[in-house]
């Protein structure tokens, strides 16, 4: 599929893939001689966990499947009340098609209930935080080895760095792709990453205060949930410059940064 899409256009073709294996692109580069450039966007795993929690809490179909896989029983409600295991979550009241999920013994955090901390193969591989951090670790390790086929084709960006200086990072991305940055793109970046967001869709919308959005998870996750992710993903977080709350940084103290400059041994661009 990638081969077909890349050959379809003569000039530029952008394809967004979610947590793709870098090795999948090796054949495309070596055998098809396609001029591929990779922009690898990463984020603090705690922010990723919170984002997934919000999505599954809003998307009733996804949540029903995950709760059912966790062994939660359900019963049909005989009235019009909307049952939501996480009241107050999401952009609108969530319909569970009048099903109310209940576990024989409800234990754990919201991440546990949704199966996001599972280590088994009950859920799709990369939908859990342990699997996500394992994938992230292997991908960064491959980039650190700087194989010949990846040189000149790989650039790493942390979401938090983009959120801090969106226009500067955008300029760097266009330079990497050897593309001219139009003024209308500059204006779009400025208009969609600055200021307070009033109304609209805060979860899926494109107009956000970037610096606020990047760390909003710190006010939405509990300390226990953050520690869960840190315990599972602490090694790769440290490698990528993300501080843990165990380093005497309070989760709710937004004046204290939880991300440091990217360590020198992590390749920003090959």
From TrEMBL:
<protein>
    <recommendedName>
        <fullName>Sulfotransferase domain-containing protein</fullName>
    </recommendedName>
</protein>
<feature type="domain" description="Sulfotransferase">
    <location>
        <begin position="33"/>
        <end position="240"/>
    </location>
</feature>
<dbReference type="InterPro" id="IPR027417">
    <property type="entry name" value="P-loop_NTPase"/>
</dbReference>
<dbReference type="InterPro" id="IPR000863">
    <property type="entry name" value="Sulfotransferase_dom"/>
</dbReference>
<dbReference type="Pfam" id="PF00685">
    <property type="entry name" value="Sulfotransfer_1"/>
</dbReference>
<dbReference type="GO" id="GO:0001517">
    <property type="term" value="F:N-acetylglucosamine 6-O-sulfotransferase activity"/>
</dbReference>
<dbReference type="GO" id="GO:0006790">
    <property type="term" value="P:sulfur compound metabolic process"/>
</dbReference>
<dbReference type="InterPro" id="IPR051135">
    <property type="entry name" value="Gal/GlcNAc/GalNAc_ST"/>
</dbReference>
<dbReference type="GO" id="GO:0006044">
    <property type="term" value="P:N-acetylglucosamine metabolic process"/>
</dbReference>
């Amino acid at each position: 599929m990638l081969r077909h899409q890349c050959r379809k256009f003569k000039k530029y073709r952008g394809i967004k893939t979610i947590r793709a294996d870098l090795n999948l692109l090796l054949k495309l580069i070596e055998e098809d001689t396609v001029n591929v450039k990779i922009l690898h966007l990463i984020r603090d795993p705690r922010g990723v966990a919170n984002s997934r929690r919000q999505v599954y809490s809003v998307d009733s179909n996804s949540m029903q499947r995950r709760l059912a896989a966790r062994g939660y029983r359900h019963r049909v409600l005989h009235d019009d009340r909307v049952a939501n295991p996480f009241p107050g979550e999401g952009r609108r009241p969530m319909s569970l098609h009048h099903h109310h999920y209940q576990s024989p013994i409800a234990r754990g955090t919201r991440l546990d209930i949704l199966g996001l901390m599972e280590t088994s193969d009950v859920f799709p591989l990369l939908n859990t935080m342990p699997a996500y951090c394992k994938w992230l670790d292997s991908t960064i390790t491959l980039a650190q080895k700087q194989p010949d086929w990846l040189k000149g084709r790989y650039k790493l960006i942390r979401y938090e760095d983009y959120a801090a200086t969106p226009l500067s990072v955008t300029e760097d991305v266009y330079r990497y792709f050897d593309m001219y940055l139009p003024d209308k793109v500059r204006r779009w970046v400025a208009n969609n990453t600055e200021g307070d967001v009033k109304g609209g869709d805060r979860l899926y919308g494109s107009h956000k205060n970037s610096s606020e959005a990047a760390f909003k998870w710190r006010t939405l996750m509990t300390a226990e949930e953050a520690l869960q992710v840190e315990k599972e993903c602490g090694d790769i977080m440290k490698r990528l410059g993300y501080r843990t709350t165990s380093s005497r940084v309070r989760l709710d103290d937004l004046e204290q940064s939880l991300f440091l400059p990217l360590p020198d041994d992590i390749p920003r661009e090959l």
